[in-house]
Fold this sequence. Notes:
By secondary structure, the protein is mainly alpha-helical. The protein has helices at residues 2-38, 41-44, 50-77, 83-87, 91-99, 111-121, 125-144, 156-173, 175-179, 188-197, 204-225, 236-250, 252-269, 305-312, 315-337, 344-358, 370-378, 386-401, 410-421, 428-435, 444-452; strands spanning 107-108, 295-296, 302-303, 367-368. A two-stranded antiparallel sheet has the order 1-4. It has a two-stranded antiparallel sheet with strand order 2-3. 42% of the residues are buried.
Amino acid sequence: xxxxxxxxxxxxxxxxxxxxxxxxxxxxxxxxxxxxxxxxxxxxxxxxxxxxxxxxxxxxxxxxxxxxxxxxxxxxxxxxxxxxxxxxxxxxxxxxxxxxxxxxxxxxxxxxxxxxxxxxxxxxxxxxxxxxxxxxxxxxxxxxxxxxxxxxxxxxxxxxxxxxxxxxxxxxxxxxxxxxxxxxxxxxxxxxxxxxxxxxxxxxxxxxxxxxxxxxxxxxxxxxxxxxxxxxxxxxxxxxxxxxxxxxxxxxxxxxxxxxxxxxxxxxxxxxxxxxxxxxxxxxxxxxxxxxxxxxxxxxxxxxxxxxxxxxxxxxxxxxxxxxxxxxxxxxxxxxxxxxxxxxxxxxxxxxxxxxxxxxxxxxxxxxxxxxxxxxxxxxxxxxxxxxxxxxxxxxxxxxxxxxxxxxxxxxxxxxxxxxxxxxxxxxxxxxxxxxxxxxxxxxxxxxxxxxx
Length: 453
């Protein structure tokens, strides 16, 4: 009886050990899955290959050549000095590589976000940086509370109406730079009135350069769109020619800005002030410091934190929500196109952390860029590591190229912005909604209402 009891005790102990081991293994596996979910880089980094590295390098460099001139132009839309566009363009590249769930998305300044910021910060960098920090805190809080599902309640017609109106506002806002006009108000209707009222003050140099830049950008884009893929048996000269056309079409923004800057520099050294140029910019990398929570004006008056937040007002709600909506919509679109799924709450976390850390390097609020994400996808990016290459290019531009940005003509940057926002004016949606059943025509009303607002 004693031996039997002892054997039962041993068997019971062994089963407890096995059960305890299984529980530990299950807990370890769950913790690994949770860690991979919170750090998506752990999902693809162990499988990283030399082939992926090659494609990511090409995509990252291509997006970098697209991003630098674009973000300089978007800083103008936000009413900030052009270097703030570059300050805002690199932090998201590194953070999204670790925390993002889409291989295609590129975070940075966008036309819509720049326009919205301009209406709340009034050209004040302190307000812009603090708005970035507070937007990041709100976005990160939404991620922690798992509130990503709320964005599904914003209807498609409302989104289209907003983007269409924003594109028209941004595009027309650059007409003054194409014409070389000065002292034009920011409000849209006043902008329209004074642009036509002062049209007789047009600078011929700016008008010619802006027009030529627009034509070149459109032609290069059409050349790229009409480019056929290489056949397997195509001669080497044909492949090289198509590669050159593809490069010129993809890097068209950078090429046009560089060419325009060379023309402006040549005129300047010859003693002719033909063009309105960007002017002096701050050189070097931004200092890494905490965002300012107060502001001291030129006469020594200190604006406290609570007064700044009151001035920002509804921007503390609008900026974070539009940033999330724009970025997640882009991520879902390209995830569906390239057959992978994204985690909305993890995207919230990545964008929120990007804005919080961006405020430490004087960035203004950022979100996903549709244009640069499209370039990233079309060039065959394999992982978010392509963003690291883009971030390095932006940092190199800040470190070594800032003195050259003095000669960038505002007309050339305006042409880049107009070509970037023109595809956002999509009137075909209204026609499509009108042609369907009568009860669905109600969708046209919110789209039109939001556009007019």
